[in-house]
Amino acid sequence: MLPQMKEWSPYVLRSHLVKTPATADQVRWPMVKVRQPTREFRRAIEDSLRWRNFEHRPDDIFISTPPKSGTTWMQGIVSSLLWPAGNAPDDGRGRSPWIDARFVPLDDLLAQLDAQEHRRYIKTHSPADCVPIFEECKYITVHRDGRDALMSWANHRGAMRSELVDFLNASALDEGLPPLPSWDGDMDELFDQWSTDCSPITHLASWWPLRKEGFAFFMHYNDLKADLEGEMRRFAVFLDIEVPENLWPETVKRCGLSVMREEARSNGRVDKVFENGVDAFFHKGTNGRWRDVLTQAQLDRYAALVANELPADAALWLESGSLVTGTRPHEP
Predict the structure, then answer these.
(1) What is the model's pTM?
(2) Rounded to an integer, what distance in angstroms lies between the CA atom of residue 108 and that of residue 27?
């Protein structure tokens, strides 16, 4: 059961007061703009209502992605930028928690965040209109061609341990949430679930209207693969992080997919979630595998979904990224 939650304001944009000590005998009350959620994102795996008791810090970094679009990669990038000398602390449970995840006790997760003394970076798969957005913080949203994300999700879903799925479904039913559907490998069935629950199309549609806001930065999986250092340097500027020039080579090297795969293998956490552990979680990390798998009918369904939910410029960027299109959504 979830603990008792704070109530959100019904306003989409409001200011609230945060008491911050200035001196021993003086208190200042800064105005903090918060864009409140306008809808909920609740399913067996995750629940956006868990954000209600979250207390932000002004320098928090939020990594907002649809599943299988570069989330873990971006968490590694942020970590490497925050600790360019490679001396990141290890709290044994991961430095970048996933608030929405229903399989982690919420009280424990919030306590973990509260205890962190470093600059925090937090993961969410919930769309932008399902989480609070604190305008003084930094938000990075990462996307990937939806067809590639679908193929990666198929591997991800197929490798999930049955005992985890059973646990999630039992607790979801207790809270009145729909269970995670079983899957026997039929791509039409998977597409139905994916398009409703975890599509990059829906996720990007929630962020696209915010692309010119100063708190938002858009990253594409293709661009990271093509020019990792260049993208990391741009991102560091956005985060106000200065990496000494002599540390850049190692800072980038730590973010190679093969390096991150071996790091994940060493901590063993992924083994608890997936059969074959890290090899199942990271799988190939390549693009274009959908060409040999998806039928024309399935591709037509995908194209219709894109046309229905995204404007043309967003659809083009989702498919190709910034280096191909020559445009960056967050730039004027």
Answers:
(1) 0.82
(2) 31
